[in-house]
C-alpha cells in the first residue's frame, strides 16, 4: 500500500513551524553561534511553500483578484471604517466623530505604552526603576523641574541608544538607566550639593566610556570578586526591602495590600506582579482618602541644565560606587544576555557609547545609561520575533517609547507625586525583591568568598559614612580587603589555623 501523502500545510507545520531557529552571530550571518539549530532535513524554505505560492499565483491569473479574494473568504473591515460607519448611523457631526476617534486613539496609545512599561514586555523595559529615581529625587530635595529633567535625560538617553545601537548592530540592544545606581543615590544624594552630584555623574560617564572604548571592561570585572559586587548590590537594596515592612507600621492597609497583591501575582501572574501591587495600592489609597493626584497640566518637559561642580567626597562617595555598580550589575549581565542568545556584541561599542551618552546628558540629570539585562532577555528570545535577525526591531520600538516617556516626564512626576510616600516605598521595595534575592544568591554562592561578602553586605547596609564617603564605597573596600586576607597570596604562619576555622591536625 502506498503511504498517504501529507498535505502541504502539514509539511509546512512539520518543517517551518516546529519552533526551532538558527541564531545569528551579531552580523546577520548564520551558523557558528546559533542557540538552537534547525534539523538538517529541513531546508531554509520547504518545497511545499513554493508550490503553495505557485498555486495562489495561478488562481489569481485564472479567477482575477475578485475571485481570489472570494475564495480566501471575506476580509474584516478596518476598525476605523467601522467607527466611521457607526458615527454616520448615529448622525454625529464632524466634531463629535473627531472627538470619538481622538478618545479611542489616545486611550489605546496610553494603555499600550502603560502596560508595556509596567509589564516588562519587549516594547520597553520595566517601570520600577522609575520609582527608584523618584525616591532618589525626593531624598535629594529636588523640585518638580529638576525631577522632570532627570526623567527626561535618562529616558532620552535610553531611547537614543536603543534606536541607534539596534540599527547599527542589527541586534536587539536594549538600554535603560541604572537601577542600582538610582538606589545608591537614595542613600547618598542628600549628603552633597546637587552640583556636586552632577559632577559625579559626569565623571562616572566619562570613566565608563573610557573603560568601554579601551577594552579593559572585562579585565576590570575580573579584578573585583563577583561575590563582593553582589553583596554590595544587596546591601544597597536592603533598605528598600525593609521599607516594605516598616510601612506596615504607618499604613498597614496600603502596604499590606501591596505585599499581598505582589505575592498573589508572583504565584499566578509573575509578569504582572508589580502592576497588580501598584493597582492594589492605588485602590486602597483612594479608599483611604490618601490619594492626591492632580494632572492639571500635561505638557512637554523643559530640560534644566545644572553646572557640574567637583569635590573629592562626591567623586569617591558617588562616582566610584556608581561606576562599579553600573559596570558590574548592568553592563556585564547585558553583554552576557546578548552573548547567550547567539549574538556577538562588541562590548567596546556598547559600553563606550552608553557611557558617552551618560556623560553628555549628565548636566540635565542623567546618572547612568547602561545595557539592560532582564528586558534584553525577552527581546532576544522568540517572543520578540521568530527570526533572530529581525529582533533588532524590538530595540527600536523600545527606544521610541522611551522617547515618548521622556517627553512627558513632568506628567509622570505629577502622577507619582500624588501617591502616598508609604505606597511609593512599598512599590519600590517589592519591585526590587528579585534584584535583592539575586544579589544575596550571588554573594553566598562561593564558600571561599562568603565572609568577604558578608562584610561587604553589612558595611553597605549599615549606611555608615566615613570622611564624607558613603557606605557603598566602604563596603567594596572592606570586602576586597577581607577577600585578600582570606584568599590572597599571604603566607600563613606555622601553627596558625586556616581561615575557615578548621583544625588541620583534626581529621574532618
Q: What's the topology here?
A:
Elements: H1 8-15, H2 47-72, H3 79-89, H4 94-118, H5 128-139, H6 144-169, E1 175-177, H7 179-188, H8 194-214, H9 217-223, H10 226-250, H11 252-268, H12 273-287, H13 312-340, H14 347-361, E2 369-371, H15 374-379, H16 392-407, H17 409-417, H18 421-431, H19 433-443, H20 450-462, H21 471-487
Antiparallel strand pairs: 1-2
Helix pairs in contact: 1-2, 3-4, 5-6, 5-7, 5-18, 6-14, 6-16, 6-17, 7-10, 7-13, 8-13, 8-14, 10-11, 10-13, 10-18, 10-19, 10-20, 10-21, 11-12, 11-18, 12-18, 13-21, 20-21
N-C termini distance: 72 Å
Seen as an oligomer or otherwise, the chain set is single chain
What order do the helices and strands follow? Answer: HHHHHHEHHHHHHHHEHHHHHHH
Radius of gyration, in Å, reads: 27 Å
Largest sheet: 2 strands, antiparallel
Explain this structure.
There is one protein chain. The longest helix has 29 residues, at 312-340. The protein is mainly alpha-helical. It contains 21 helices and two strands.
Offer a quick outline of the entry:
The protein is mainly α and 508 residues long. It contains 21 helices and 2 strands. It has a two-stranded antiparallel ribbon with strand order 1-2.
